[in-house]
Design goal:
By secondary structure, the protein is of the alpha+beta class. The chain contains 2 helices and 7 strands. The protein has a domain of about 100 residues: SH3 type barrels, CATH 2.30.30. The termini are far apart.
Length: about 160
């Protein structure tokens, strides 16, 4: 008798690390390896990756599912719908102290553009060869924003080191 197929542990680990960040008043960030299956503003992609602030104050309608991370966020004042396949998340960490987890990227699907979640599109105006500005996160949406929201801490930024 054959053992039943198991699901990936990645979505469970991402949700656990996200909850840990929230419980410890830290800002959860995810690192995403961008390909045709990822719906993010392409003008913010740098070296094939994008770093996204996925805190409650920076997102709205977020779903941390088994297959996708989906939410709405503002980039440069423009509301965007973000959709990241769970297999493209390469890390999740706390901005304040750099504690987190890294994950191997699942093999790229040559038919990624055709198998992307319905509605996945690349942002127009993304020019090849032009170096996009670095992205440190996303601007919080208007929903739930208050004028008294605290400013992010200043000082040196923690860095995430990949250990093999």
């Amino acid at each position: 008798m054959q053992a039943p197929a198991t699901t990936s542990t990645r979505p469970y680990m991402v949700r656990a690390m996200y909850d840990w960040c929230v419980d410890n008043n830290c800002t959860p960030f995810i690192v995403v390896a961008v390909d045709a299956s990822v719906r993010v503003p392409q003008e913010f992609v740098q070296n094939g990756e994008i770093v996204l602030n996925v805190s409650l104050g920076a997102t709205s309608n977020m779903t941390l599912g088994n297959d996708y991370i989906e939410f709405k966020a503002r980039f440069g004042g423009v509301a965007r719908e973000i959709c990241v396949p769970m297999g493209r998340v390469s890390a999740i960490y706390a901005r304040e102290n750099g504690q987190g987890m890294t994950f191997p990227i699942e093999a790229a699907n040559p038919d990624a553009a055709s198998s992307a979640k319905p509605g996945a599109v690349s942002a127009p105006g993304a020019s090849a060869g032009a170096a996009p500005p670095p992205v440190l996160g996303i601007v919080p949406s208007d929903e739930g924003a208050k004028e008294t929201d605290p400013k992010p801490p200043t000082g040196p930024r923690p860095s995430l080191k990949r250990v093999k």
